[in-house]
Amino acid sequence: MTASVKVVDHPLVQHKLTMMRRREASSAEFRKLLHEIGLFLGYEALKDLPLGHVMIDTPVTAFNAPVISGKRLTFISILRAGEGLLAPLLDLVPGASVGHIGLKRDEVTLQPSQYLFKVPPHVTTNLVIVLDPMLATGHSAIRAIADLKEAGARNIRFICLLAAPEGVAALQEAHPDVAITTAAIDEKLNDIGYIVPGLGDAGDRLFGTE
Ligand code: URA
């Protein structure tokens, strides 16, 4: 089994992504654009949610209308840049439960070490959507998903804004059951683990830090 990768190549998404990549985009612009693209990514990643029906009254008639049923969602934000995708996903599904995983990247080994793991108990039964804008080496996503599986999660998907081919391959190999949704797969990683052409450090750009 190989995890599916969905690239959301809608012109609006691609245009907004280009605006975000620009060096001169401010944090406010970057945040707004990530939020907007996050709505499209969530729309795509959740397009197979099962529907049930409820009887409602419209002003015109009674109607057996479709509603999302049966699937409870948990969003997991990988700190800190995951916060930029959490907000739009919560706009789409306000009732989802939320967890946070803190992973710090060692700039020499590029390996993640965990400093926070706070997830709701529902991860064992819910559809769990892991959020991190940048799938670079894949180390953070692989570690976060392994930790979630260790906590009992069985049904996991991953949403990112940008991926490197190396990160996609590594995540697919480590977790072939986890579908990936992204806005683009860039050319490569550079020798310090940044995505090329990329957009720089997503956390710094989101929060205006350096
Ligand atoms: N994390 C980022 O924020 N940017 C990259 O290019 C790679 C990892």
In short:
With 210 residues, the chain is an alpha/beta fold. It has helices spanning 11-21, 27-45, 83-92, 139-150, 165-174, 202-207; strands at residues 5-7, 51-57, 62-68, 73-79, 97-105, 112-118, 127-131, 134-135, 155-159, 162-163, 179-182, 184-185, 188-189, 195-196.
Low-confidence stretches: none
How far apart, in Å, are the first and last alpha carbons? 40 Å
Shape: globular
Radius of gyration: 18 Å
Structure description:
One of its GO terms (cellular component) is cytoplasm. Keywords: Allosteric enzyme, Glycosyltransferase, GTP-binding, Magnesium, Nucleotide-binding, Transferase. Pfam families: UPRTase. 5-phospho-alpha-D-ribose 1-diphosphate binds at residues 80, 105, 132-140, 201. It is an enzyme of class 2 (transferase). The chain has helices at residues 11-21, 27-45, 83-92, 139-150, 165-174, 202-207; strands at residues 5-7, 51-57, 62-68, 73-79, 97-105, 112-118, 127-131, 134-135, 155-159, 162-163, 179-182, 184-185, 188-189, 195-196. It has a single domain (5-49, 70-207), classed as 3-Layer(aba) Sandwich (Rossmann fold), CATH 3.40.50. It contains 6 helices and 14 strands. The protein has a 7-stranded mixed beta sheet with strand order 1-11-9-7-4-5-6, sandwiched between helices. A 3-stranded parallel beta sheet has the order 8-10-12. Strands 2-3 form a two-stranded antiparallel ribbon. With 210 residues, the chain is of the alpha/beta class. Helix 1 packs antiparallel against helix 2 (27-45) and helix 2 packs across helix 3. Strand 5 and strand 6 form a beta hairpin. It is globular. The structure holds uracil (URA). The site of uracil (URA) has 10 residues, from helix 6.
